Amino acid sequence: MTGKNITQVVEELCLGLLDTTRVISRGHPNFRVANKTFAIYQINHHGDGRIALWLRSPPGSQKFYVAEDPACYFVPPYVGPSGWLGVELDAGLHWDTIGQRVFEAYCQVAPAKIAAQQPPPLPIEPPTKALDPALVDPFQQPMVTARREQIADYCLGLPETRADQQFGAPSFKAGKKTFCTLHFHQRRLELSVWVGPEEQFMRTIDPRYRIPQYIGHRGWLNLDIHEALDMTEATELILGSYRHFALKRMLAALGDMLNDE
Predict the structure, then answer these.
(1) Using one digit for the tens of pLDDT, what is the confidence trace for 28-61?
(2) 206, 200, 192: which is closest to 234 by C-alpha?
(3) What is the mean pLDDT of residues 186-203?
(4) What is the 8-class DSSP label of residue 221?
(5) pLDDT tens digits along 112-135
(6) Which DSSP symbol is given to 35?
(7) DSSP track, 47-112
(8) Any idea what DSSP says for residue 39?
(9) Among 72, 88, 83, 86, which Cα is nearest to 109's?
């Protein structure tokens, strides 16, 4: 496996087990046997900086490994309370050890007949190629940095705003309320703002707009700005979202600011 990166080694490791498949769920590779997930591959999940596998591990193993080596093992979000084990892939663990953890996870969910046929993992040649930095942290791409700075300059020029992070992505708050975020959808940069249901319907006639899955029902709308950013369009959207969440004193200050322009 000379010349492979971490992603390629993970795929060979997981798909080398009997009757396994790879599916994309919520944007992340899931590895399954008998339609049950035993491993989830995560890169910089919500900005945590980790390249990791979340593994369906035997009872008690999560507590044991995290206590034994917290630099390499962790309790992953969401599935951690169910006993899943997080394994950092670039923190110094030998790849044969990682292979053993994957094998243990596989045996947890594989039907007994299939698991009995699966031999123990073979020695693994470690990756020698680095991952594309844009995959590890897409916000470090020069184009994305430029877009983010333009959005930030406008948002932070509004009364009583501040920069924050939401699930590892840049966001902007008016007081305590988030009114604008930037994030990636299918590796494309999007601007997310509140517009309300009526404008959602009108704007989604344009294919650049998308109603997001989790917050769309609350009136939020996403605009694809990966190819180009029209700041006139963006500021109109951001300003409308800001006005929805801002307090009365902020709106008064906004009015004074706009009158002075």
Answers:
(1) 899 999 999 999 999 988 878 899 999 999 999 9
(2) 192
(3) 93
(4) E
(5) 999 999 998 888 889 988 887 767
(6) T
(7) G---EEEEE-PPTTHHHHHHHH-TTTEE--TTTGGGT-EEEESSSS--HHHHHHHHHHHHHHHS-H
(8) E
(9) 83
pLDDT for residue 2:
55
Q: Is 133 helix (H, G, I), strand (E, B) or coil?
A: helix
C-alpha pair distances (Å), 238 with each of 138, 175, 179, 181, 242: 22, 15, 7, 10, 6
Contact (CB, 8 A) for 19 and 144: no
Residue type, 160: E
pLDDT digits 0-9 by tens, 138-193: 787 888 999 999 999 999 999 999 999 887 789 999 999 999 999 888 778 999 99
Helix (H) or strand (E) holding 31: strand 28-33
On whether the CB atoms of residues 179 and 172 are closer than 8 A, the answer is yes
Nearest to 26 by CA among 78, 88, 93: 78
Residue 185 pairs in a beta bridge with: 188
20-25 sheet: strands from edge to edge: 20-25, 28-33, 36-43, 51-55, 85-88, 73-74
User: How far is it, in rounded angstroms, from Cα 108 to Cα 60?
Assistant: 13
Q: Which tokens belong to 77?
A: 């979000």
- DSSP helix/strand/coil, 33: strand
The tokens 């369009």 sit on which residue?
233
Q: Going from the N-terminus, what domains does the chain have, and what CATH number goes with each?
A: 6-131 (3.90.1150.30), 138-260 (3.90.1150.30)
